[in-house]
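Milestone 3.1: sequence recovery, worked example.
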């Protein structure tokens, strides 16, 4: 491998390690000053090496991370003038066009990237993502499946595959794909919520409850999930579990009248009248304080 290619590979690895690969859908917020400094250094180097494809590629990556997508595209294209078979450059262009809302151009360059390197799971994923934007869900499904086949640990690809599968009315397989995504990334609260929606549509209350329990495990102060869990447990006749979540909701917000009232009624049903009496007194105190 040539020295210039080694340099580029190291740079890509460093960028990926910092969470700034153009192929990744949801990169972490970067340190803006670092990338501005990189741009200045790279531009100085280009003055003496104006046709160096790796300098252009790295400059494009830094512009991309700052959200300067037109500049990013300009330098990826300079890379392609010297290295026309650079799949990473096409992927970078595709991502930039996607961020600019130019879906057809993004799709065009992701296709070019895959013609060069068919085994890139992130290019498959990004192409699927753009087909979702274009409203072509069946095509999106094909590329999300390609991403998961190439990388069985790609949680985000399984999540998007589940999403389009659900939109295509295949609920059974959508649930399967969401569950696989959560095996790989158990702490993705949004995925839990999307899975809950399918469970609720299919009347699988117990499974929905389990997902809400996962949400409050991830975020114990999730006020809304506590209320929903308490309500679901009440409907299932599990008053003790319902009361537990209402009590936690009240700890989070001691003035939560809805939780206090519901908990008082649960205490009445279980004949804990003194506990219910204390709660009603607290409700009176809150009302008097607010008037």
């Amino acid at each position: 491998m040539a020295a210039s290619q080694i340099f580029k590979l190291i740079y890509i690895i460093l960028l990926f390690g910092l969470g700034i690969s153009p192929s990744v859908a949801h990169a972490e917020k970067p340190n803006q000053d670092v990338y501005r400094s990189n741009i200045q250094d790279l531009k100085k180097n280009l003055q003496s090496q104006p046709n160096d494809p790796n300098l252009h590629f790295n400059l494009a990556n830094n512009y991309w991370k700052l959200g300067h997508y037109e500049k990013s595209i300009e330098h990826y294209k300079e890379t392609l003038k010297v290295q026309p078979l650079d799949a990473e450059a096409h992927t970078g262009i595709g991502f930039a066009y996607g961020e600019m809302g130019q879906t057809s151009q993004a799709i065009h360059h992701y296709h070019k990237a895959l013609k060069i390197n068919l085994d890139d799971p992130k290019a498959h994923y990004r192409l699927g993502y753009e087909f979702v934007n274009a409203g072509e869900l069946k095509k999106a499904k094909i590329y999300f499946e390609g991403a998961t086949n190439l990388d069985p640990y790609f949680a985000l690809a399984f999540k998007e595959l589940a999403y389009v599968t659900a939109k295509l009315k295949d609920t059974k397989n959508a649930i399967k794909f969401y569950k696989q995504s959560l095996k790989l990334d158990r702490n993705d609260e949004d995925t839990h919520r999307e899975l809950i929606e399918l469970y609720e549509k299919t009347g699988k209350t117990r499974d929905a409850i389990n997902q809400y329990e996962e949400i409050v495990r991830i975020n114990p102060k999730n006020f809304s999930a506590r209320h929903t869990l308490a309500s679901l447990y009440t409907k299932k006749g599990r008053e003790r579990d319902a009361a537990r979540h209402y009590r936690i909701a009240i700890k989070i917000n001691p003035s939560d009248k809805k939780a206090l009232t519901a908990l008082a009624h649960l205490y009445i049903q279980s004949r804990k009248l003194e506990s219910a009496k204390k709660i009603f007194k607290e409700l009176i105190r809150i009302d008097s304080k607010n008037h």
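The chain is about 75% helix and 0% strand. The first helix runs from residue 3 to 17.
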